[in-house]
Amino acid sequence: MERAVDAVEAALAKHGAPVYVRKQIVHNLHVVRDLEAKGAVFVEEETEVPEGSVVVLSAHGVAPEVYAASAARHLRVLDATCPLVTKVHLEARRFGQEGRWIVLIGHAGHEEVVGTTGQTPGRTILVQSVEDARHVEVPDPDDLAYLTQTTLSVDETNQIIQVLRERFPNIQAPPREDICYATQNRQDAVKELARRSDVVLVIGSENSSNSNRLAEVAREQGTPAYLVDDEEEVDLRWLEGADVVGLTSGASAPEWLVGRMLAFLAGRGATEVEEVRQTHEHLRFSDVRV
Question: Which has the least CB within 10 A, 38, 81, 228, 290?
Answer without folding.
Answer: 38
